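Incident log, structure service

09:12 report received: a user says their structure output differs between two submissions of the same chain.
09:20 pulled the input from the user's history:
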Amino acid sequence: MNIGSLTREKALLSEVLYNDTARNLPIWKPNSNGLFTAKNEWEVTRQKFVKPGWASRIWFSCHIPRHALVSWKALKNGLSTTDNLPFLDPSVNRSCILGNSELESVNHLFFQCNYSKWIWNIILGKLGHRRNPNPDLLLEELWLANNFKGAGQTSKLAYIAFEAAIYIIWIERNNRVFHKISLPNSALLSEILILVRSKVLGMKIEEEDNPSNRAIASNFGCTLSPKFRPPQFCSWLKPVQGTFKINSDASLDAEGGGIGGAIRDNNGFLVSMFSVNVEREEILALEICAVLAGLQMASSLGLVSIWMEVDSKIAADVINGKSKIPWRCFNRIQVIHQLLSHFQN
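09:34 re-ran on a clean worker, output below:
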């Protein structure tokens, strides 16, 4: 290797005596085996910087390369906006060419300018949020990261829309500067939505199936790809001979609640079952409501010996008198106790 006059590289060389050859040979100290490689040289001499937290979010697995590149430059304030061109002729108008209201800058273009703010506000609405953008693009990206976490379809869709908006707005700005061609912001919004939809439809990314995620997918003209949930198996302890077992449960989501249950004999054969949609209440009230519905069904079938099982310990303690009865459930607990008195066992 011709070391030449590279002083730093010389400092990283040391004369060491190798026992096998009894000769003094130069070794490359940054490498544990003493051998020089171009990779080691690059790692030693290059200037290293801390990678920003948003880098991995911009270069995510489903990014569109040209969109991610422009977004990366925008977040680094590396786009050639007029405030970043100190050599520009002072007589040149430095106002934002999209709105002609303020000095053109990255933070103004994305998304403080009324032209671009309208576009981003529509996209935010389709993502389920009604709010004004942050005055700093880095803060807006951080807000996006905090509200659309994970690797599901919804978070990917949000970042595809974010990067597409930056890219299309930057292209519109350049078309106005260099080609004197302009489009209304409604045309840009349509182009962004088409880009997002075509990209998401080509992805095979699963997402939690809930009303919010279904609505977001629908707003962008996409289809939700629900996550596959493997079947869950549980053991069932059968009651004693001549006894019927009632299992009840309740569920709660953003739209309302539901209760259900089943009655089986001691061999596990289904006698009857029920499932009812009810008004949204606290989950404890719904659990108690499910117990009441199960007892009413058992009473209507003329069963005399039952075993009631509920998966909520709090509900069981309230019914058994081990916990204080919430005032909202007082009437239902009274009816449950009256029904229990009709059964022999």
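09:41 both user submissions now match this output. Likely a transient worker issue. Closing.
09:42 reviewer note: The longest strand covers residues 244-252. Confidence is low (pLDDT under 50) at residues 1-5, 15-19.
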